[in-house]
Amino acid sequence: MKAELEAIKTEALQALKEIETLDALESLRITYFGRRGKLTDVMKGMGKLSKEERPAMGKLSNEVRATLTEAFEDLTEKLQSQQREQQLETEAIDITLPGRKPAYGKAHPVMQIMERIEAIFGQMGFEVVTGPDVETEYYNFDALNTPSDHPARDLHDTFYLTDGHLLRTHTSPVQIRTMENQQPPVRIIVPGKCYRVDYDVSHTPMFHQVEGLLVDKHATFSELKGILTSFARQMFGDQTQMRFRPHYFPFTEPSAEVDISCAVCQGKGCRSCGNTGWVEILGAGAVDPAVFEAVNYDPDEVTGFAFGMGVERIANLQFSIPDIRTFYENDLRFLRQF
Ligand code: DAH
Q1: Which of 325, 309, 56, 16 is nearest to 200 (CA)?
Q2: What number does the ligand 1 atom closest to the CA of 170 have?
Q3: pLDDT tens per residue across span 265-315
Q4: Which residue, 104, 284, 292, 335, could crosslink 299 as a Cys pair with Cβ 3.0–4.6 Å?
Q5: Domain span including residue 55
């Protein structure tokens, strides 16, 4: 038995020298230490030994077992670390490669302009309020002194829905909604989407307006002029000139269209302004007494001024875009420029 143990030891240590993989090592381990392994077999024979022989053989077999176990463990460790190194080499990451930049989003150009407009009026004490896109004929027209037989209705190219509903053609209905729920003084702006059946280089079926309304005991036209001039200079530059042209809106009397001096040619006349030196930016006027009556305000007690501007138009004056429909084509190459 002694010879047998010695032979197993020599043979196993020799075999270990040839092992190159963890798989091969595992099957060699089974050959010696497995349930039917060579070393296991010898140990099983221990029972047949005489009492005198047993302690010496026990000691020797433990020694052989310890030596081999250690040899197996050492090789396991060595092969594992080799394997890890190989893996690190093949899976190596080149940290000198440039990274992939995350694509940042930002506000749509029309929203950027809208936020500017809100900031400028906010600073002048105007509160932002909003109203629904789906309106009734009453708020969009009737309460704004535009009854159904009124010729101004034809100009609006309205998207009609059922049951007297429609997509609002302007943000003016929010004037009515606000005054119904609030006593003067009122000083609001209303940013929002509007809809008209219209589609060409300067019109999209959905567009944005910012409405303004100012009602007080003694609101004056000069106050309106001051506010709008301040707005235009902050938006388009200190040199901007303003011109009020008489116009007609059903809900204001008197009414005006407001032009600013063309920023491209400084008023000299160019293609942008059709050689007039002026570009129209908004409609405005003194609130018509009929509108006050619709919301139970007493026209003898209060005066009011209102204005409304197209945001795409203002954005276009800032950015000079030949066709405003491109704002809504979702082409990132276009949108990323702003
Ligand atoms: N609602 C008008 C439009 O869409 C714009 C407008 C003009 C609004 C004069 C006003 C105003 O408040 O006073 O054409």
Answers
A1: 325
A2: 4
A3: 888 988 878 899 999 999 999 999 999 999 999 999 999 999 999 999 999
A4: 292
A5: 2-90
